[in-house]
Amino acid sequence: MKNNQQHIPHSAPSPLERAGVRPVGVRLVILGAGESGVGAAILAQKQGFDVFVSDFGVIKEAYQLELESYHIPFESAQHTEELILNADEVVKSPGIPDKAPIIKKLKEKGISIISEIEFAGRYTDAKMICITGSNGKTTTTLLTYHILKNAGLNVGLGGNIGKSFAKQVALESFEYYVLEISSFMLDNMYAFKAHLAVLLNITPDHLDRYDYQMANYVVSKFKITQNLTAQDHFIYCDDDIEIASFLASADVKAQHHPFSIEHETINGAWLQQNNLTIQLTNSDQFDMSIQDLALQGKHNVYNSMASGITAKVLEIRNETIRESMGNYKNIEHRLEHVANISGISFINDSKATNVNSTWYALESINTDVILIMGGVDKGNDYSMLTDLVRQKVKAIICLGKDNKAIHDAFEDEVEVIVNTFSASEAVIIAYHLAKKGSTVLLSPACASFDLFKSYEDRGNQFKAAVKEL
């Protein structure tokens, strides 16, 4: 199929139509034909909507074929307004900003705009475990899923990771879902409710989408708690200043489960010396040495606490939790060990697209560091990295088109700052600057779209360059 043209399906009935599902005349337009959009389209068709999918970018061939297989009409590389502005409701990809022209026109017409999560939540009675935070949400989501899966629960994984939540609701029958929820998703969620809501932390990120106002971003993150009842559970970091400050005046009706590495908590988790303890009301106590955790570093103690409390709320046996936390393997592009060459460790942390993620990465490394960072700056404040850079970083290699902010932030802290424009160039220079026993760390603190297709592409090019050494 050529780009810039609509795809109208053949007149032959789809398998769902043959099964007796008939459109009810309600027009649902889906903007964005990635994983979430295509999944929402499949669920919408199953529920009998008049579905149309539109993507201003070029739809990947695999997704085009999937839409065609369900006889769902779509258009690629354009938005045809007369086919969109007649919608009764719109499901929007979280990547489309509110300032996009088509979104402004939909709002002017008063057409409801929701997220895939909001839409899919209408059609399942499964228990929802929803995890958000500026950092650590992917790791915590996968660790929680790992524990629940090991416990034998019938559980699906979705949201900002893995398969579309909506597609799973359409085609699967899970009793639980572990969902990674971004602030962009939360912005278009209204009636949806979690049963267990997890808020890991709130640090400056994506402020360009929130008028560069931290308060707006905090409000967005706290939407994870909307619609919670006294029967539900709110799991949160009690050490996070933004969470503690907002929570002091917020009315979150759920049962509270704080976790902390700084002090003992009530009905939650805490760290005492090197022992992680979880003690919930009316539940036996869970203890585990942090040295036995598969995920090391202070940030991962927090992630493990959040996952452990979730498991205890669901009454999973201590032995299963302990075993799962001990054998979990981390995700690709998140503090991923790539190789050790001539005594130099190479670590791929390409998923670190904000300053706080890079802080966590530097905090977890105990050697001298050659730091590769840079990309699309989202209004970053690099000052929180100053102390760690001064202590550990021997050179910074900028990987991006505009590196001025990095130079300004660190030119007095490190002796060497080098500009590069490819992963291969960055790796070669890093290798020559590194010494035996040190670490070359790709932890960009920035988005990737100036030089790469995605953070995955950036991480894969980094790994390929390391293997060429």
UniProtKB/TrEMBL annotation:
Q: Which GO terms describe its cellular component?
A: cytoplasm
Q: Pathway, per UniProt?
A: Cell wall biogenesis; peptidoglycan biosynthesis
Tell me the ranges covered by the Mur ligase C-terminal domain, including all copies. 333-446
The UniProt catalytic activity note for this protein reads: UDP-N-acetyl-alpha-D-muramoyl-L-alanine + D-glutamate + ATP = UDP-N-acetyl-alpha-D-muramoyl-L-alanyl-D-glutamate + ADP + phosphate + H(+)
Its predominant location is cytoplasm
Give the record's GO biological process terms: cell division; cell wall organization; peptidoglycan biosynthetic process; regulation of cell shape
Entry's localization field:
Cytoplasm
Q: In its keyword annotation, does this UniProt entry include Acetylation?
A: no
| Function according to Swiss-Prot or TrEMBL | Cell wall formation. Catalyzes the addition of glutamate to the nucleotide precursor UDP-N-acetylmuramoyl-L-alanine (UMA).
Give the similarity note.
Answer: Belongs to the MurCDEF family.
Q: What is this protein called?
A: UDP-N-acetylmuramoylalanine--D-glutamate ligase
Q: Which organism is it from?
A: Pedobacter cryophilus
Lineage, uppermost ranks: Bacteria, Pseudomonadati, Bacteroidota, Sphingobacteriia, Sphingobacteriales
Q: Which gene encodes it?
A: murD
